Amino acid sequence: MQGITTEQPTDFQAATAAAAAAAAAAAAAAATVSAMRTKSESRDLEREREGNSISEQDEWSVSECGFNDPEVQRAMRGGSAAEDITQYPIHGWVDVTQEFHEACAELLPGELAQDMLFGLFEAMSAIEIMDPKMDVGMGFDKFDLPPPSFEAAVAMGAIKLDALEPAELIGVFDALFACLVSWLEGNSMDQVLFTCLYLHAPSQIQDKALRVFCIAVRNLIVVIKNIIILAAVNEEEDFQLYGNSALLGAEKAQPATIAGQLKDVEDELVRKCKKLPPAEDQNLMAVVHRLRFMRHLFQAIYQVELMASAESAEEAVNEIYKNLNVASELLPLIKRTIERGTQPVEGSEAPNPMGFSPRIHDRSQPPTFPRSIKIRERPASYQFLEEMVARFKYACKVIRHKDYYSALNFFIEYSRKSGHCILSRSVLQNLFSSSIRLAHGKQSMKRFLRHSVQAFNSPPVLNLKHPVASDPKVQQHLETFFRYCTNMNTFNQFIRLCGFNRARQRDKLAHLIENFDPLQVDAVRLDSLMNQLANERAMEGNELHATALKHSTHFSTWVLYNCFRAMLIYLMSGFELELYAVHEFLYIYWYPYEFLVGFLVSALTRTENILLAQEEYAEHQSKLQVNGGGGGAGGKNRKAAKPKKNKKQQRPYRQEIIYYHALLSLCGGMYKAMGALTKDGRVRLPMSKFDNEEIRYNRRFAPFVPLTSPPPVSYAEFKSIRDHMMLSSVEELYSVAAKHFDQARNVLESIQNPEQEILDLLQIARTNFVVMNVLARGHQKELKRQPEFDFSKHTYFPIIKLK
User: Fold this and answer.
1) How would you label 634-649 residue by residue, b for 16+ Cβ within 10 Å and e otherwise?
2) Using CA atoms, how far apart are residues 491 and 479, in angstroms rounded to an integer?
3) Average pLDDT, integer, range 149-170
4) Which of 194, 250, 288, 353 is the most exposed place for a label (fewest CB within 10 A)?
C-alpha cells in the first residue's frame, strides 16, 4: 500500500470510486508478493507456526468466537482479498431471533433481564436497530447512490445558481424558514439546516437575493447559538448547539453587515417591481416581504446579543421592539403567499424540490445518534415564527420591572407561556441580565437587590432621605448583607432557573431551596442588629433613629417570602409534570394547606402592616411639624396636609393575599376530599409489600429538610394529623371539603377584573363543591370507583369527576 497514491476527490462519488480502486490495487499487490515467496521462506514460516502452536492453544478459535457461518469462517481463515468498501460489510452475524423470542417468553410482565454488563442503564441507552425512527440506515437501500455534494449538484445541473424565478426563490426561502424552526425545536443542525446545499457555499451563488438570504441564515445561526450559550438555560433535550462546525467556519460570520446587504437587495427588487405590470409583480413582492422579514428578525435577534454592550438598556429594548413590530406585520402577508412558491414533492423528505439533499449528512458524526426527522410544514413553521415574535415582544416588557418582586413574577408568568421554545427563554434572560452580577443592562446586582427590598417593604434604613441612612454602622451592616446575597447568587439563580424547561426547573429548585437557609440566618442576624442599634440610639436620646430601627423584620420577611414561593412552586410543579400518584395527593395538598400558603399570607400581611405603620408614622410626624412649625413653611405644610385626611391607605399586596387565600381553601378542599375518598375506598392504594408511604413522603419533601424556617415536618407528625382527621365520618369529611371549595368560590368571586387563571380556578371550585355535596348525600355509595382527576383547566388543581 505504500507505493499507492491517490488524489483527493472532489465529491463523495469520486471518493467512493477512488477507494474501491485503491482496495483492488492493494489486493493485486498482496497476491504478487505472496507468489514471490521462496520455498525456504515458506518452510521457515511453517516452523514458526509449529513452535507457537502450544501458546496458541489457549486462544479463542473462529468458531468459538461465534462465527458459525462456514462461508464466513473460510473467508476469515483464507485471508481473502481486501473488502470492497462499496459493498455492505460482511460480518459473522448469527440469527438468534428464535432463541431471543423463546427467552422472552419465559419473562413475566414487568420482569427485566439483567446481566453484569447489561443493566437498565445500558438498555435505555442502547440504539434500537431496524427501527426507521432510531436507525438512520433503514432509510437506505444498497443500490442507492450517495447524496450529491454542492459541487456535484452544480455539475449535474441539479441546482441553479443564477436567474432563479420568483417562485423558486419563495420555495427556497420558505423551506429554509421551516428548517430553522425545526432546528429551534431541538433537531440536529446537520439534519435540517445544512441539508440545504445553498448554505454550504453561499459565496458561489450568483443570484444576489438568494446569496444574501443564505448568508443571513448562516449568520443568524451563529447569533442564535451565541444567545443560547450566553443565557445558559438550555439542556440537551431542548437544543443541539453543535453540528458540523466546519461548514459554518468556511465563511467568516459578519452579522453587522447583514442588515445593509438585505436592504440593498430589497431596494433593488422594489425598483424592479415598479417596472413590471401589476399582474406580474406579486410574486416578486412576496420575495421582498420575505427578505424584509428576515432583515427585521435578524436585527432584533442580533440586538439581543449586543445587549451586554448597550449604553442604555431601555433604548436597545425599544429598538428591538420596533423591529419585532415590523416583522409581526409582515408575517400575515407572507402566509398568504406560501402557495406562490415551489412546493415539496409528495412523498419526498426534501422541504423543497431544488437545493436540498436530506441525506447528505446522515453518514457524518452528529452530536447525537441521527434519527428520523420530519421538517415542519410551511404554514406550521410560519405560525411558530409568529408566536415566537409575539413572545419576543412580550419579553421586551421585562425592562419595566425594576425590582426583584415584579421581575420574578414576570419570569414565572413568561415561563408558563414560552413553552418549549429555547430561543424565547434565552432572549428574556439576555434582555434582563447579561451577567450574574448585572441586571437591566449595567446595573449591579447588589444595587438591584437593595432597590428591590426597598420596593418590597420600604425599610427606613434604605431610604436615603431618612436620617438613619447616614449612620455608618447601619450602612456597614447593610453592605455586608447585600454583598453576601450577591455572592450567594441565590436570588439571581431563582430568576435564571425560570428560563429552563419545566422539568429542569423542578430539579434546580430543589438545590436552590437549600441555599435560602444561610440567607435566612443572615437576614435574621441583620434584623437583630438593627434592633440592638435601636436600643443604643434610644439610650442616646435619638428617638428618630430608634423608632426607625425598632422591631425591624424587613429583611427576614423578604428572604422568607421568596423562599416560600420557591417551595410552593417546587411542590405544585409535580402535578404539572404528572409525578404524583393519586394516593399521594393527600399529603401533597396537606402541606400547603397546613403550612406553606399560610406562611405566604403571613409574610405578605406582615409586609403590608409594616408599610401601613410607616405611613401612619409619617403622617404623625407631618402633623407634629404642622402644629409646631410657623411662618410660610408651616402654612404650606398645613395646606398640603388636608388631602391626607381622606387618603386611602395603600395595600400593594392585597390582590396577592386574596389569591393565596383562595389557594389555601382549594388546598384544604382537596386535602379533605382525598381523605374522604381514601376512607370511602374510592382511591386505589398500592400493596403494602411493594410500597412504603414513609419513604415516599420523605422523598417528596426532601429539599425542605435543610431549612430552619419553616422547620421540616416529619412523617410521624403528618401521620398523627391525618389519623386525627380520619376519625370523622366519610359524610363529615365530604361536607368539610365542600365548605372549603365554597370558601374558595367566595374569595375568587370577590376579585375584580379576574384573569383567565382566576376564572379557571372559580370553575374548579364550583364543580368540586357540587361533587362533594353529591358524595356527602351518599351518591354511588355502593359503587367504589376511583374518580377521574382532570387537570386540563389548571395544572395544580383538578376537577373531580365521578365515573
Assistant:
1) eeeeeeeeeeeeeeee
2) 17
3) 88
4) 250
Who's near 21: CB < 8 A, 6+ residues apart? 6
Backbone angles phi, psi at 750, to 5 degrees: -80, -10
Name the phi and psi angles at 497, rounded to 5. Answer: -70, -15
Share of the chain above pLDDT 70, in %: 79
d(CA 732, CA 738): 10
Higher pLDDT, 789 or 113: 789
CA distance 196 to 213: 13
Arithmetic mean of pLDDT, 369-395: 89
* E strands present in 212-309: none
Q: How far is CA 577 from the centre of its chain?
A: 14
Over range 524-539, report the average pLDDT.
Answer: 82
Calpha distance 282→370 (Å, rounded): 40
Cell triple for residue 590? 396537606
Q: How far apart are CA 449 and CA 469, in angstroms?
A: 17
Alpha carbons 388 and 27: distance in angstroms, whole number: 59
pLDDT, averaged across the chain: 82
Beta strand extents in 526-668 (DSSP E only): none
pLDDT at res. 3: 42
Instruction: Tell me how long the chain is.
Output: 803
> pLDDT for 327-381, tens place per residue?
999 999 999 999 999 999 888 888 988 989 887 776 565 555 556 678 899 999 9
Residue with cell 497514491: 5
What are 643-688's pLDDT values in tens digits? 444 445 567 899 999 999 999 999 999 999 999 999 999 999 998 8
Residue 111: all three cell numbers together: 420482569
Helix axes 490-497, 554-576, angle to 10 degrees: 30
List strand residue ranges (DSSP E) for 291-450, in order.
Answer: 438-439, 443-444
pLDDT at residue 636 is higher than 50: no
pLDDT of residue 349: 82
Residue position matching grid coordinates 436620646: 541
CA gap 582, 673 in Å, rounded = 12
Give the integer Cα–Cα distance in Å for 518 and 630.
51
Are the C-beta atoms of residues 750 and 658 closer than 8 Å to each other?
yes
Report d(CA 471, CA 190) in Å as an integer: 62
What residues are paired with 444 via a beta bridge? 438
At residue 320's C-alpha, the angle toward residues 452 and 408, to 5°, is 25
Distance CA 115, CA 118 (A): 5
As a whole number of angstroms, the distance between CA 534 and CA 184 comes to: 57
C-alpha cell at 64: 468459538
Residue 431 in grid coordinates: 434582555
Q: How far is CA 657 from CA 346, 588, 598, 800, in A?
A: 58, 21, 10, 26
Nearest Cα to Cα of residue 520 among 572, 560, 564, 571:
560
Specify whether the backbone of 107 is left (phi greater than 0), alpha (psi in -120 to 50) or beta: beta
Q: How far is CA 377 from CA 169, 214, 562, in A?
A: 17, 20, 43
Nearest-angstrom CA–CA distance, 484 and 30:
74
| pLDDT beyond 50 at 395 | yes
Sign of CA dihedral 742, 743, 746, 748: negative
- Residue 232 CA neighbour count, 13 Å, CB half: 8
CA distance 170 to 164: 10
State the Cα–Cα distance between residues 381 and 174, nearest whole angstrom.
9
